[in-house]
Amino acid sequence: MPPEAEAYRSGHNSWSPAGWRGLAESPLRIADQQRRTTADDDRWDDPVRHHSSWMLVVSDGEQAVLLGALEGDTPRTHADLDVLSGWTETGQPGLWVLLKGPELAVFERYRVLLAARHGVRDRDPGTVWSSWYSFYEDISRSRMEEVLVELPGLGFDTFQIDDGWQDIVGDWIPNLKFPEGMASLARATLDQGLQPGLWLAPFIVLPDSRAFRERRQMLLTDSRGDPVVAGSNWGSRYFTYDYTRDDALEYLAELIHTVVGWGFSHLKLDFLQAAAVPGRHLVPTDREAVYRTAIETIRRAAGEEPFLLGSGAPVFASLGVLDAVRTGPDVAPMWTNYATDDPSDALARNALRNAVERLWLRGLIGIDPDVVFARHARNLLDEQQMQWLRDAATLSGFRGLSDPPAWLTDEERDDLRRYLGPLPGSTRLGRHRFLIEDREVDFAPALHGAASRYAL
């Protein structure tokens, strides 16, 4: 490939940056080591060479070469001006393919090969209302009921309660703001003609949780016997379980069985990357195989009917088990922020970039680009930026919002009903160009254009 060729990386988990960089340029990566522990794979970070999980593409814009794994022990790849290489973390042989041809064709061929190897779970997720991007953790039974009764007739299928219902991350019991419990809220949701959805982060525990104290023996440890830090959030480090232990798997199955028993049929499973962090397992096992054992345990406990959405999920290791994965970092009602250049930060432009760059996965597994916005209040996005987010969600086949109806004008409600109607047909025209029905959409200005007009 010529020096002006570009390299595509998919990244390790939902939040890892995905996209293209010039082959002669520095790689697309998260610079901060603490953030990488959560949002990418710190073990194989490389500040010089382009690197990715499972697959990497080098392209001159027309012809491309794709090196990709179909299976293997934590497959990793890298590329520079001279070498395109792949390996497994354990050194055991993997199953690899080297595909050459037109750029779009090599992505399509790889998708077909992955589907043949792992199967396809690409169920219709319906349309989802989530509490996160309006109220964040400030939720209660009364506040959720105020929203719930206003949703029928707007076009939503699922009402999903996000972070803030539990006692603490790790202790998955309702807090005092939900005195009637979660089963009662699931029934109230069904009474409104909607499917009940619930957020939980089943693989992680905060150090102040009862689970951290009482199930210490189940935690994944390092070579010194200390609990492995699996990431950071909520102003704290968090830890994970060793899913080569029978007791940890039994506890996981009990948790999922309980939540499904409450009546929730749509589970947003967050911070899933924690089950794939390096550590000293009781039974020495490849870490992506450990992750897969954990999500297979969830699937068996939940059954085939509940919709399982993974966020922070190692994308390729989730194939055939989860119904959908988040494809990017959290969105936000602002485009960019002068204070950060981290491609995994919660910003609309970051979420859009990953959503677009991972659209080739559609038809292999469900892809969630995160929510769009109907509201103009409490929102710094302009009309074009809001439309780009909507178009990416339409192309992903996964449409969700967090706007409470009370925040919307009558005109915005009417616009929302139209948007949540039947999903229009679409066609891919190029790397960043698409047709949605007869309207051409080009995301290149969004991905490569100027920053927001707002000084944030």
From TrEMBL:
MF (Gene Ontology): alpha-galactosidase activity
UniProt cross-references to InterPro entries, sorted A to Z: Aldolase_TIM (IPR013785), Alpha-glycosidase_related (IPR050985), GH (IPR017853), Glyco_hydro_36 (IPR002252)
Gene3D superfamilies: Aldolase class I
Keyword Transcription: no
Keyword Hydrolase: yes
UniProt keyword list: Glycosidase, Hydrolase
Pfam families: Melibiase (PF02065)
GO biological process: carbohydrate catabolic process
Protein name, as recorded: Alpha-galactosidase
Organism: Arachnia propionica
